[in-house]
Amino acid sequence: MRNPASRPAPRPGRRAAALLCALLLPAACTAPGATRDWPEERDSLAAVSAGPGPECRSSGVAVHIGRRRFLTAAHLVDGTQALLHGCGRGAAPASLRFAGRNWEAEILRKGQADLAAGIGTFYVGGRDVALLRTAPLPPDVPALPLCAAPPRPGQRVLVDTPRRRAVTEIAALVREASPLHGGYAELPLRLEPGESGGAVIDLGGACLAGLVSHRQERDGLWRTRIVPSPVLRAFVGD
């Protein structure tokens, strides 16, 4: 079973998020009452939101990579989630919450979705990624560089999303069943709605090793698949 790590749904409050953490991933969650508000000046994450209306908006995370450019999961901004949830066709403008204010975001590029009814959204080449750009940002806002090396099994990483900051490791590199849909790196975590687009940061190099895409059930266990840095680098063109 395949599920994007985000869907059109409101973010839970602090108490609900803390309860969910206690039930699902107690070792990987922030302490009760410590669910982070947006933004935090010390990091490069933004909240991203897009959709045709209040009941049909997808929300998740975008990562500032410098030069007022942000990477996020394509399924958050390309209209596929609204379509899968019966909200009609077509993408809607994306907005970001970053550096203490709201920003309209221009979608410079997005991966090509291959919709498969009833089982989620697949992307050509595994490129569940979109490149956004805002108006000029304040000087010296944080940004994460893209890792030059691909992720490898056993590599220690930090997963950074609104719900959690969790140290884990790359569990495996996997290919989709169809060669058309490319491949991903996997984490041994089940991430939840609202965490799509989250940063997966190499602990050794302080660079972006991957971007949270979707979760997948395999052999009775839930895993989270991430778009690895080589795919991100090729997509951005850096």
Would you mind describing this structure in some detail?
The chain has 238 residues and is mainly beta. 12% of the residues lie in helices and 39% in strands. The chain has 4 helices and 16 strands. The protein has helices spanning 14-24, 74-77, 80-84, 229-236; strands spanning 2-4, 45-50, 58-66, 69-72, 94-98, 101-110, 113-116, 120-123, 130-133, 156-160, 165-169, 172-175, 183-187, 199-202, 207-218, 221-228. The strands form 3 sheets. Strands 1, 10, 11, 12, 13, 14, 15 and 16 form an 8-stranded antiparallel β-sheet that branches. A 6-stranded antiparallel barrel has the order 2-3-4-9-6-5. Strands 7-8 form a two-stranded antiparallel ribbon. The termini are far apart.
Structural class: mainly beta
Global morphology: globular
Number of strands: 16
| Tally of alpha and pi helices | 4
Helix content: 10-25%
SS strand fraction: 35-45%
Any low-confidence stretches, pLDDT <50, length ≥5? 7-42
Quaternary structure classification: single chain
Give the ordered list of helices and strands. EHEEEHHEEEEEEEEEEEEH
- Spatial separation of the terminal alpha carbons: 34 Å
Rg: 16 Å
Question: Average pLDDT across residues?
Answer: 82
Largest sheet: 8 strands, antiparallel
Task: Provide a brief overview of the structure.
This protein is mainly beta and 238 residues long. The protein has four helices and 16 strands. β7 (113-116) and β8 form a beta hairpin.
Which keywords apply here?
single chain, 238 residues, mainly beta, 8-stranded antiparallel sheet, 6-stranded antiparallel beta barrel, 16 strands, globular
